[in-house]
């Protein structure tokens, strides 16, 4: 994977934007459970009361709570509360509109300055939190008294406390021993702030009810406000998710585009030696399926690999803030998750590595079946090919099923761990709520954070499905891109005069052996082919004719000796300039999808109809082209399968002639032509290539008998050079070939 990392460099800015958006998305996601906790704890249980110190309180209520405050705290609180009786004019009217009963009940209030001073108000909230909890504890410890004796009667754990009888109860407070009060005060000082503040909020709501405040409106405003914020967070979360998906898709598509481009350029530079190493089926798989695997990894990885750890770490931190006492549940869940993931991945990893080679094999068999369908039908081997395909298909299917069956067990295991974790949280969280060590909303948030942590591990486990296969694919792509071409351009190439060769081709003691071969295919080949002449090659099958002429366009490089054109070693020329000066017709005429016009003019930029028609006429293709309804615009199927073999060969010859090159190579390019067409084509070639060097490989003596120079090959060696008549007199191998094809009259 690291070898392909450079392809991410052009998308650095997009990646940074995606990472920022992921961080924002994770932050929003982690805040949603906390907002839900606030709605439950504050909006529902506390009636929307957010402050632990009342903004306004009756004189009697303040006096009661002051008994549960240490002297220093009591003095501090008394210094902050002002008497509502001192308000006059519009200030009093505004105050009474919010607190209607303050007109008949002596009331204290906090100034705006005190409310805006965060440090002061925070200390005041701590004082009231502890004092109200101490008061609640004191009342609960004396709950065995008769209900009539409890002036703050009712359920002390309800959302409000009845404080209507405070005025009668206050004289009794001075009679209670300080030791009884102090024990409640000490207990309150040891309690968690979240618990004491919740108790304080219950009292604050009761104080507000006493003063006639609209507490239902307070609760509604709080819930709507928090709910609105949650809605905005959710919309922001959705927006970030969409933008991250867009960024990830752009990066993934861009990288795959660049990879395909690099692979195509690399394969285009391959010589026959590289094609011998990488099969065509493997090259197709690497440029399609393998790159798709890398693309999917980038898209999913950017969204999951970066996002899941943020959620896992952030969720753990947020959960522990809600309750550190249940951290062991999270630790247990994570240990179980890691155990499941490691076990499953270790089992599936070897099979993941086998996946792509099996896809290669299936593609190879499929491609051979499709391209060789006529041969298969001719020999009635359909059953054999079906069995061959069936084996490749079953091997891939079995491997895929094994991997899927192993990986599919991950989800049920994850769900089991998630459900067990939820049960443990509810069980132990319920006990903590019962002991007043935790709030209901906090437990609900803890459950959600736990689910986020588990799902983050689930997302990471999904990546373990993709990463091994994508890693294998990336290695296969990197292997292709890093493969060294055996034929390369020189650092400082030489050039033909005006970029156009004269056409003098010379072989000097050329030897050649295929890569990893033990013996040479060609031995000490030496000859010179001159412009205006035809140099023909003939010999038995396997004598090295095609191999020899494939050395001229540098499809292979010589093992020993050298080949020169106009005195310049081929290895000192750039491949482009060399091949621009050669018109090449391969042994198998191959046409490209398009039309006749594009195929004939393939090697000539902006070729005119006159050039194309002239090349077609010389190649004896004009006759059949003229019979077609669309002429040069007639569609050609891939590989030229909609034309005959002879037509395909003539169009291939026309394509080479359209280049008007100084050197022409015909590799047994007349084999599909009848004798009449062959003769007419050779006559036309003689006229149109009068100044060019023609190198011609043929199996038929009649095709080459008029060549100025005929080279006879046998087992990779030259056994005769000369004209037709000279070779009949001096070369036994040539005479045997000629006598097997021509009558005595034709030989004479």
Quaternary structure annotation: single chain
Quickly name the level 1 CATH class of the largest domain. Answer: Mainly Alpha
Please mark out the parts with pLDDT under 50 across 5 or more consecutive residues, or reply none: 144-158
Q: Note the gap between the termini.
A: 70 Å
Tally of individual domains? 4
The named CATH superfamily of the largest domain: ABC transporter type 1, transmembrane domain
**Number of strand elements:** 15
CATH topology of the largest domain: ABC transporter transmembrane region fold
Q: What's the helical proportion of residues? A: 55-70%
- Mean pLDDT across every amino acid position: 85
> How much strand?
5-15%
The general outline is: rod-shaped
Main sheet specs: 6 strands, mixed
What is the CATH-assigned architecture of the largest domain?
Answer: Up-down Bundle
- So how many helices? 29
The assigned structural class equals: alpha/beta
For the biggest β-sheet, the strand order reads 9-12-13-6-14-15
Q: Please tell me how large the radius of gyration is.
A: 46 Å
């Amino acid at each position: 994977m690291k070898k392909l990392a450079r392809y991410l460099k052009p998308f650095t800015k997009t990646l940074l934007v995606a990472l920022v958006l992921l961080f924002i998305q994770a932050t929003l996601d982690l805040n949603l459970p906390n907002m839900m906790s606030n709605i439950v704890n504050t909006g529902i249980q506390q009636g929307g009361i957010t402050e632990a110190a009342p903004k306004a309180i009756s004189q009697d209520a303040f006096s009661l709570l002051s008994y549960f405050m240490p002297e220093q705290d009591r003095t501090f609180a008394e210094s902050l509360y002002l008497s509502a009786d001192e308000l006059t004019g519009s200030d009093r009217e505004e105050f009474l509109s919010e607190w209607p009963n303050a007109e008949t009940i002596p009331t204290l209030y906090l100034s705006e300055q005190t409310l805006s001073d965060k440090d002061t108000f925070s200390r005041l909230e701590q004082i009231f939190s502890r004092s109200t909890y101490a008061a609640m504890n004191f009342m609960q410890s004396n709950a065995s008294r008769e209900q009539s004796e409890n002036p703050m009667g009712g359920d002390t754990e309800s959302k409000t406390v009845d404080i209507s009888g405070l005025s009668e109860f206050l004289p009794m407070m001075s009679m209670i021993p300080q030791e009884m009060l102090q024990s409640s005060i000490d207990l309150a000082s040891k309690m968690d702030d979240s618990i004491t503040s919740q108790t304080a909020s219950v009292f604050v709501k009761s104080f507000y009810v006493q003063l006639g405040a609209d507490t239902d409106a307070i609760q509604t405003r709080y819930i709507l406000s928090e709910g609105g914020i949650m809605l905005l967070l959710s919309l922001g979360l959705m927006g970030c998710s969409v933008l991250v998906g867009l960024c990830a898709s752009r990066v993934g598509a861009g990288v795959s585009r660049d990879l395909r481009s690099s692979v195509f350029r690399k394969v285009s530079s391959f010589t026959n030696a590289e094609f011998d190493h990488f099969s065509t089926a493997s090259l197709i798989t690497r440029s399609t399926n393998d790159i798709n695997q890398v693309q999917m990894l980038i898209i999913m990885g950017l969204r999951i690999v970066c996002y899941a750890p943020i959620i896992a770490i952030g969720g753990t931190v947020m959960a522990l803030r809600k309750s550190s006492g249940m951290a062991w549940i999270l630790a247990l869940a994570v240990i179980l998750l890691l155990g499941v993931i490691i076990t499953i991945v270790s089992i599936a990893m070897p099979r993941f590595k086998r996946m792509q080679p099996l896809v290669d094999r299936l593609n190879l068999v499929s491609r051979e079946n499709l391209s060789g369908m006529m041969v298969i039908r001719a020999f009635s081997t359909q059953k054999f090919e079906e069995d061959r395909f069936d084996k490749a298909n079953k091997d891939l299917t079995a491997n895929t099923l094994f991997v899927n069956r192993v990986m599919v067990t991950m989800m049920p295991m994850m769900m089991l761990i998630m459900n067990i974790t939820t049960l443990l949280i509810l069980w132990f969280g319920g006990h903590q709520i019962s002991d007043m060590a935790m709030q209901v909303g906090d437990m609900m948030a803890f459950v959600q954070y736990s689910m986020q942590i588990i799902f983050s591990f689930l997302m990471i486990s999904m990546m373990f499905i993709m990463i091994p296969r994508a890693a294998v694919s990336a290695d296969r792509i990197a292997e292709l891109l890093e493969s060294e071409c055996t034929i390369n351009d020189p650092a400082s190439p030489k050039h033909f005069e005006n970029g156009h060769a004269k056409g003098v081709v010379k072989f000097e003691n050329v030897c050649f052996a295929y890569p990893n071969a033990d013996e040479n295919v060609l031995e000490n080949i030496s000859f010179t082919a001159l412009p205006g002449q035809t140099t023909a090659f003939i010999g038995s099958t396997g004598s090295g004719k095609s191999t020899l002429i494939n050395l001229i366009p540098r499809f292979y490089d010589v093992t020993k000796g050298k080949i020169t054109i106009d005195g310049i070693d081929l290895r000192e020329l750039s491949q482009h300039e060399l091949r621009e000066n050669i018109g090449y017709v391969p042994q198998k005429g191959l046409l490209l999808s398009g039309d006749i016009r594009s195929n004939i003019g393939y090697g000539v930029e902006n070729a005119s109809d006159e050039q194309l028609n002239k090349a077609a006429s010389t190649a004896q293709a004009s006759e059949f082209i003229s019979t077609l309804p669309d002429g040069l615009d007639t569609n050609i199927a891939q590989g030229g399968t909609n034309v005959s073999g002879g037509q395909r060969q003539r169009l291939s010859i026309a394509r080479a002639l359209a280049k008007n090159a100084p050197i022409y190579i015909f590799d047994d390019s007349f084999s599909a032509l009848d004798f009449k067409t062959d003769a007419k084509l050779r006559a036309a070639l003689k006229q149109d290539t009068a100044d060019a060097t023609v190198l011609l490989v043929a199996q038929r003596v009649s095709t080459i008998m008029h060549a100025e120079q005929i080279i006879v090959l046998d087992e990779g060696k030259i056994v005769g050079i000369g004209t037709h008549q000279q070779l009949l007199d001096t070369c036994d191998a040539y005479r045997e070939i000629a006598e097997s094809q021509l009558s005595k009259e034709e030989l004479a």
